[in-house]
Write a structure and sequence with these properties.
- This protein is α/β, with parallel strands linked by helices.
- The chain contains 6 helices and 10 strands; from the N terminus they run E-E-E-H-E-E-H-E-H-H-H-E-H-E-E-E.
- It has one domain: Rossmann fold.
- The chain has a 6-stranded mixed β-sheet with strand order 6-7-8-3-9-10. A 4-stranded antiparallel β-sheet has the order 2-1-4-5, covered by helices on one side.
- A hairpin with a 2-residue loop joins strand 1 and strand 2.
- Helix 3 packs across helix 4.
- It starts with a strand and ends with a strand.
Length: about 220
């Protein structure tokens, strides 16, 4: 299994009150598997995704990414795990306005310590694969919503991660574009044998995933 989450709970202190967002949830995602997490707003989907991507530590429970436990890692080591092992696709694409499409990808390579012609080759291959070759010198402001999300997919694959985590990737897209973007994520997951989790409200794209898990009141229900 590429991602293993065992008995994960997450609670916050809100004044006098203890708020439990996740309650003893467990999930395993294998290589080449694309899982959708569905649930209403405030059900804990984003918290779940942040914990899966080592952005947030659970209150209790254990996470393993690629067989490596995260519990005892320092902040520096967790940053390295995120850079080497996890690819994030955010809701609004989260592109850097002053970088062109190609440089959005090369920045990830640089942060992960990959430089030179190998990184440029990788970026060129991904942009071609996702139909962005002609847009590589464009800046985010001149891209459509669908193109921005395709850049976000390419960027998430740049560090060759074990896991891809997508947070509401269709939120700002119409039905047709949304379906195409999730189809691309699904294709890349299969082709590159990645484990992927997508948090979504969008039931129209569920035909593209292998498993649907609902999150309600902090519990996972398959």
């Amino acid at each position: 299994m590429t991602l293993i989450m065992k008995n994960i709970s997450k609670s916050y202190q809100d004044g006098e009150q203890q708020i439990e967002v996740l309650k003893n949830v467990s999930l395993e995602v294998a290589q080449g598997e694309f899982v959708a997490i569905l649930g209403p707003s405030g059900a804990g989907k984003s918290t779940f995704l942040s914990i899966a991507g080592a952005l947030l530590s659970p209150t209790t429970g254990e996470i393993l990414i690629g067989g490596k436990g995260l519990s005892n890692l320092s902040n520096k080591e967790l940053t390295k795990v995120r850079l080497d092992k996890v690819g994030f696709i955010f809701q609004g694409a989260n592109l850097i306005p002053y970088l062109n499409v190609r440089d959005q990808l090369l920045l990830i390579a640089e942060l992960a310590g990959q430089k030179g012609s190998k990184a440029k080759e990788k970026a060129a291959t991904l942009l071609k694969e996702l139909g962005l070759e002609a847009r590589q010198n464009n800046y985010p402001e001149s891209l459509s919503g669908g193109e921005k999300q395709r850049v976000a997919i390419a960027r998430s694959l740049m560090n060759d991660p074990d896991i891809i985590l997508a947070d509401e990737p269709t939120a700002s897209l119409d039905a047709d574009r949304g379906h195409k973007v999730v189809q691309m994520i699904a294709d890349e997951v299969k082709k590159k044998n990645k484990a992927a989790i997508m948090v979504t409200h969008d039931e129209r794209v569920l035909d593209l995933v292998d498993r649907v898990i609902r999150i309600e009141d902090g519990y996972l229900k398959e």
